[in-house]
## 1
Amino acid sequence: MEGRYSALDTALEQLRIAAEKLELDTGIHEMLKYPKRTLVVSINIRMDDGSIKTFTGCRVQHNDARGPFKGGIRYHPDVTLDEVTALAMWMTWKCAVVDIPYGGAKGGVCCNPKEMSMGELERLTRRYISLIFDLIGPYRDVPAPDVYTDAQTMAWIMDTYSQMKGYSIPECVTGKPLSVGGSEGRAEATSLGVMFCVREAAKLLGLKMKNAQMVVQGFGNVGWNAAKIAYDWGCKIIGVSDSSGGIYCPEGLNPYKVYQHKTKTGSVVDFEQCKNLTNEELLELECDILVPAALENQITKTNAANIKAKIIAEGANGPTTPEADKMLNEKGVLLVPDILANSGGVTVSYFEWVQNLTREHWTLEEVNQKLENKIVKAFNDVYKTSEDEEEPMRTAALMLGVGRVAEAIRTLGLWP
Ligand code: NAD
């Protein structure tokens, strides 16, 4: 396949590779190319200036053979139905790889949250949820945060859904604040999962975590928390970035201070004693570990040859195109794919759902221990498949995920 990849092109190509390796029934392969259900909605809200504005949103439910649909909601000006469909498909494989009883879904609203007030975002969220209300629910489809949505957004979702039902239903959404049934450890879960994978990958390469040089693209929920955990574990964070650009400091920077700087100025750029650089330059820095934690299609055939990291752990979904994948593999880079590396978020979302359904509250130690067990098991399962099949970690993870979903489909059968 030549040319520019969309997220959906990437997801379909990955599915094709997995289907070929698994010698998957062509009917099941065909079935998995498409979501089970898609709903597109027009969200009309009153803006602060009194005008009415219409935003387009969607919810894509890819596959629920292994359990209720699960997946985040993204607010971004570039959101498209194709992108959300790809993200929903990746959720299906991810839940299967980390072996939690969910299918895959995703939601998106095409908007620019940076230009909207809290009031506008609240009205947008509540109206969007009222429009997709029939599709979601604790046993149907459980949303969670993604790019530019957070715990506050999830609280509005819980409240809207509960008000419409007439009673409190915390288990209808995960990633909530602690005060309304959120789980300990959810905010850091994706990043902790990424770092458990990095640690396991480093062991395979005989690389010590202490002073390992790490670069992080994206300084939001996943990127900032990954940088913080890595710093606390003794890694040297030499570069980070956000949508405005990147910063580089070969001596290592303190991510806590960068976070304060970003809170004050709105960006990581111009941080003390650091050199500013572009996101493109950041990805090509000499380092041991690279964590892409922003958006899709960041590592492509254009820059893959210049990537110098020994380990890439995909905090973001779909940051690497299939062409780049091949090039990185040929260079001997150990790439921990998104559906394994960032599965810590959905894993603790699952823990949150279980706690809500059983009306329990686990300690942070319990949550993190269970998370570590799940991620290390998934890492080892993928690594073993990779060794047995003599395939890179991405193909191995896809074979495991797609294979488990196909097995569930075969077991359930088709009705009517
Ligand atoms: P976020 O909104 O908290 O942060 C996104 C960050 O990326 C921000 O710092 C933003 O400035 C930066 N960014 C945006 N465009 C960029 C660009 N072109 N170049 C560099 N940086 C850019 O989002 P998040 O929740 O941290 O999600 C980041 C990625 O991780 C996404 O791919 C998401 O799907 C994936 N992910 C998130 C979770 C989760 O629990 N939040 C779980 C699994 C995967």
## 2
Amino acid sequence: MKREKAVMDNCIFCKIIEHKIPAQIVYEDEKAMAFRDLNPQAPLHVLVIPKKHIPTTLDIAKEDNELVGHLFQIANKIAEENGIAGRGFRLVMNTNPESGQSVYHIHLHVLGGRLMHWPPG
Ligand code: AMP
């Protein structure tokens, strides 16, 4: 995959994709990757990301629809493999500052292994 160097250099998740900084990778294929969150908010907290650099959900183009669906398939697989699919888990994608988005490369949080509360904080 052709990667824009300027983007890669500024994006921490692009660096993880390029194996330039370490992460606890739990899944990888040619289009996506999943790794453990550095600051877990639940017993299971994994981030599923596309290898394509997409800054926010607002930047998801029609051509990315299959890729975004793929991220959800990976999240489901991770929940199943960790034995929490039936109990329940939460999938979150934050968009822009008021949501708390801190890394501008879309990522699906997979949170589980404890009771989740609603409304979220
Ligand atoms: P968000 O606030 O929705 O943008 O989520 C970004 C998430 O990335 C946070 O939960 C961080 O703990 C996590 N994070 C930031 N840097 C790393 C890293 N190098 N490895 C793993 N997770 C990270």
## 3
Amino acid sequence: MRTVWFMTGNAGKVREAKHALQPLGFDVVQLQVEGVEISEPQADDLVDVARSKIEQAIPHLPSPHDALLVEDAGLFVDSLDGFPGVYSAYALKTIGFNGLLNLLNDSTQRNGAFHAVAALWLDGEVHVSRGICNGEIAMQASGNDGFGFDPVFVPHPIRIDGIEYSTDGKTFADVDLTEKEMFSHRRKALDGLIQILNESKPASSS
Ligand code: IMP
């Protein structure tokens, strides 16, 4: 099994990446860099954030032949001009998802989208892939699964091979991982990297 080191402090993201990549033959292992602060640049584009993190993490890879994954995401709300967007982690820590609900108050303009950028370092090259999940901010928080803004995000129905899928108004925190994955920005971003991983030579670690 190939090892993909995933540099993140977010256990929810690791769970989702494992769920997506393990059945395809990749061993996703969380890379936690002890004693070194990996800074998150306050850039306007998630791609810049992901690339910066990859560059900072490369020296800490157990082997330069291993694959390294970073992923950056944010929730962009239309009526708030894209806020919290690249400030999502800070917004979650400070105002929380209840703060987001308060900002929207009773507004009917609740459309938003999760964006994810996954960046993969492999054999000396960086590959970048994006995923978007459109949806809306719920009127109130609901559900215990998931993480981050999941309790207030309801994905829009999607069509796959002519069949419509919907969470029937449930938030991401109300559905299990398999169902979230059908709609998920993270899954879409990872899908863009799977072919590259499949075509690569086996890494030295596993
Ligand atoms: P980051 O990519 O870890 O910087 O994520 C930014 C913020 O968005 C964090 O507070 C995450 O908890 C939140 N976030 C990222 N992805 C998701 C998701 O799939 N569901 C809910 N919140 C998310």
